[in-house]
Amino acid sequence: MASIFTKIITGEIPCYKIAENEHYFSFLDINPIAEGHTLVIPKKEVDYIFDLDNGSLEGLMVFAKKIARAIDTSLGTIRTGIIVEGLEVPHAHIHLIPIYFEGQAVSLGKKTEVDESRMKEIASLISKAVEL
Ligand code: 5GP
Predict the structure, then answer these.
(1) Is 85 in the pocket of ligand 1 (CB under 6 A)?
(2) Distance 4 CA to ligand 1 centre (A)
(3) Angle between helices 54-75 and 116-129 (to 10 degrees)
(4) How much distance in Å is there from the Cα of 31 to the middle of ligand 1?
(5) Domain residues of the chain, as ranges?
């Protein structure tokens, strides 16, 4: 059965999309731990990130870097952190966490409330800043 993230790629499940290319896709996490919390995934459905072949893993990281740069320039972060856990959704993904101030908690599980209109606004700001 297709993963939730494959269904997002195909448009079966809606998302706040940031960007995509032939092999990779990014969108806002539905339960953000900070405004602009973004997921970056390979289109190829592989559960464990370290089961990706080397080329796909390298490509995923380079794509994530471009999205992180867009987050930094559009949201006024001090930098963007990354977390890889993958215990909830069996489709490899990198969490990009905008860091707005020193000492900000950067760990999964501490959700922050972001309403729908702000999610749309953030997705638009980041996606406009992406240079693929
Ligand atoms: P992990 O597998 O690394 O623990 O995290 C999976 C992440 O996927 C969670 O942060 C969760 O909020 C996010 N997530 C789960 N289902 C959906 C969904 O349908 N849409 C979006 N945008 N994010 C999701």
Answers:
(1) yes
(2) 9
(3) 110
(4) 7
(5) 4-129
Residue 1 has a pLDDT of: 86
pLDDT digits (tens, 9 = 90+) for 79-105: 999 999 999 999 999 999 999 999 999
37 flagged as catalytic? no
Q: Which of 75, 51, 62 is nearest to 23 (CA)?
A: 62
Does the Cβ of 89 fall within 6 Å of ligand 1? yes
Q: Which CATH superfamily does the domain covering 4-129 fall into? A: HIT-like (3.30.428.10)
d(CA 110, CA 97): 12
